[in-house]
Amino acid sequence: MVVAGRQKSIAFFIALGAGLIAICVLLYVGWVLLNWRTGVLLFLGVILLAVLIAGVVLNTTFLVREIRRNEQQDAFINAVTHELKTPVASIRLYLETLQKRPVDDDKRQEFYRIMLQDSDRLLSTIEQILRTGRMGARRLNLARVDLGVLIDGCVQRTRSLHHLNPESLAFDQAESIDVLGDSEELEAAVLNLLDNAVKYSKPPVRVRVSAAPVPDGKVAIRVSDSGVGIPKPELKQIFKRFYRVPGPLATKVKGTGLGLFIVKSVAKRHGGRVWAESEGPGTGSTFVLQLPVMQ
Ligand code: ADP
């Protein structure tokens, strides 16, 4: 609802700007027809018209940018408040239950397991927010990184986090490839892609990861899943900060919309790029992270 309202006001300001420019041009044409003999007036008119049009364009750009900034702040507050509050509320509820009434051992262990899961979720949200904030300010800690080893580590971590077997999350390593990069950032990028591939898959999870050289001295890391897929118009949008594909899935699957923004920033900072491929909802997706190879 709010997003639709914002889109309408953006469209309104663009239409207003275009309308005002059209009126200016009309006025000017009329004015030229009336004064076509007086050269000086014509010259002054051209300048005045150019200034007016530039002013209107500037004004419209400024308004649209401000609305977009507001929109991002709202999205941040919505996503982050929910992701911070929910696990804390859940932990508090279990602690209260444990404090108020006797709970048998099995139930107690179950409560501990849920509380640990909630605190992991809280930690990962905080880590995502801090990483996003640090992105611009932190300098890269560059070193030679063996991509195979790095991806293998991420795959193992994701498997143990989501209790997956090697068949559900497989890594095909063709050959050893080195890149010049910041291992902490590259790891965060790969982990985000793997986490998404699992999060947006329906059981049985089938995620394939590969890293292979491509032309122009680059290496392509491909993460393919057979999950929910992505509508074509959303393929670029999903890399925006706080953006989540709207619909019932966004409420069902937890997230802040920061993961892919982090992946894109990491790719850019390393002279690479990232993009998503999908034939649409229900067809799975592939994310490709391309980085320059270190010779
Ligand atoms: P989050 O997962 O926290 O919402 P991301 O920035 O990682 O944030 O992803 C943005 C959006 O892109 C997600 O909300 C989801 O709609 C979509 N998305 C990301 N990865 C996948 C995937 N592997 N399959 C389908 N949709 C995906």
Outline the structure in words.
The protein is 60% helix and 14% strand. The chain has 295 residues and is of the alpha+beta class. Strands 2-4-5-7-6 form a 5-stranded mixed sheet. A two-stranded antiparallel ribbon has the order 1-3. The chain starts with a helix and ends with a strand. The mean pLDDT is 89. The site of adenosine-5'-diphosphate has 21 residues, from helix 5 and helix 7.
Helix and strand layout, with pairings?
Elements: H1 2-35, H2 39-100, H3 105-137, E1 143-146, H4 147-162, E2 169-173, E3 178-181, H5 183-199, E4 207-214, E5 218-225, H6 248-252, H7 259-269, E6 273-277, E7 285-292
Helix pairs in contact: 1-2, 2-3, 3-7, 4-5, 5-7
This protein binds adenosine-5'-diphosphate.
Task: Briefly summarize what is shown.
With 295 residues, this protein is α+β, with helices and mostly antiparallel strands. The protein has seven helices and seven strands. Helices cover 60% and strands 14% of the residues.
